[in-house]
Write a structure and sequence with these properties.
Blueprint: E1 21-28, H1 33-36, E2 38-43, E3 49-50, E4 55-60, E5 63-69, E6 73-74, E7 79-84, E8 92-94, E9 107-112, E10 118-126, E11 131-135, E12 151-154, E13 182-184, E14 189-190, E15 195-197, E16 199-201, E17 207-213, E18 223-224, E19 229-231, E20 235-242, E21 252-257, H2 264-267, E22 274-285, E23 289-293, E24 298-302, E25 316-326, E26 329-333, E27 340-344, E28 353-355, E29 368-379, E30 385-388, E31 394-399, E32 409-420, E33 423-428, E34 434-435
Parallel strand pairs: 7-8, 14-21, 24-26, 28-29, 31-33
Antiparallel strand pairs: 1-2, 1-11, 2-7, 3-6, 4-5, 4-9, 9-10, 11-12, 13-16, 15-19, 17-18, 17-20, 20-21, 22-23, 22-25, 23-24, 25-26, 25-27, 29-30, 29-32, 30-31, 32-33, 32-34
Length: about 450
Amino acid sequence: MMVIGVMPGFSFADGGDMGKLLISELNDPKSNYQQDRFVEIYNTTEEAIVLDGWKLEIIENTAVARTFNLTGTLASGDAYVVGIEGYEKADQTLAGAWTSFNGKGGDGAKLYDASGQLVDDASAALSSSDKMFVRNPDVQITTATFTASQWTSTSISDSKTEGTPGVHVSFYPMSDTKVASVISNVNEGVVAVGTEVTLQCGTDDAIIMYALSTDDTEPTTYVEYSTPIVINEAVTIWTKASKSGMEDSDVISFTYSVPVLNTIADVRESVGTKTIVEGVITARDGNYDVYIQDETAGIIASQYKSGAFAGEVGDKIRVEGTIAAFYDNAQIQPASPTDVTIIDAGHGLPSAKNITPAELSNDIEGMLVKLTDVTVTAVDDKGNVTVSDANNNTGIVMGEVAALTVGKTIESIQGVVNYNYSIHKVKVLSADDIVEDSSKL
């Protein structure tokens, strides 16, 4: 993750691996804590660090609960975030809830270098619940002994996701003659419409100036910064800072874009992409998931992190969110209910795509489909129903399938395509979508 925070020109004294990486943040949010707990490490040096062989232990109740084996290269000034499986802001995740990572006693993390040496001990840093803990800005060298005075807790609100994963907000000692470079509280890249960017400078009493452009050309006119900058379109923020008696800071730019409307087919495989799609709700699956499709493809729109999903079957909606793979089903996940808009209530359902059992595949995952003239050949104890057509093509149906018993011939079965236990199946969400003989209706 790209992070703004380390100051140019600063490096630690040579001390082996001690001080090269530090544990910079631990987070136990008040809301959605089973999903959004994380630990962040940070490269404080001016050089990239190879992480192969390094490991980060997560400590719960004074014991090692899980170990992240780190790989890859962490650039100067970059942060690396570990979290729970499914946490979209993490660079590495592991399955299993961090049940006791709650600040109620002996919770934190330990960092080991490639030789196995303990280089940073934050094993009890998380000392109260519902808070994030950030490494103090004056901490320059890590220690193998936990030191509580190196950490500051931040009050936590009731918002969904807390903390600043990937952005180590801290100011390290700077030159006495040159103003520190300006930093931003928001990572560069695609951000939600309405995101507020706050600019900061590590030099006391420095005046921050900024300018905006829509390309990579630095403007000639800057204005003084006073309030957060709201991102509503693609923009580059150019920044610099000055203080009487000191050399001006370097010019630093931050480039942001906002999600754009795409077809579902164009983005459904692009995990991690923030985007906007429009489609008709073809099925509801509980309170939090709906299936939507446009003229190109289908996808699950899931709001399990932020509440019940708006809209009814047949409504056309617009969803802004992040593409994810949940149990290998493509999803778009809006960050909040406000990211879902009903643009045409009662728009009407698209026609179900007529398929054979042999055509169940990733190509039609998430779409409304119909099987016709099939015979039930098997039913297992997990609710999976095997059906076969006249050409002996077989497929599996699940969901509201109580009416399907071995030997029955069914005129039509309508449902949505879902990937379940390593195979694509037709998921029936209403018993009315199974028609044995329409002539008898």
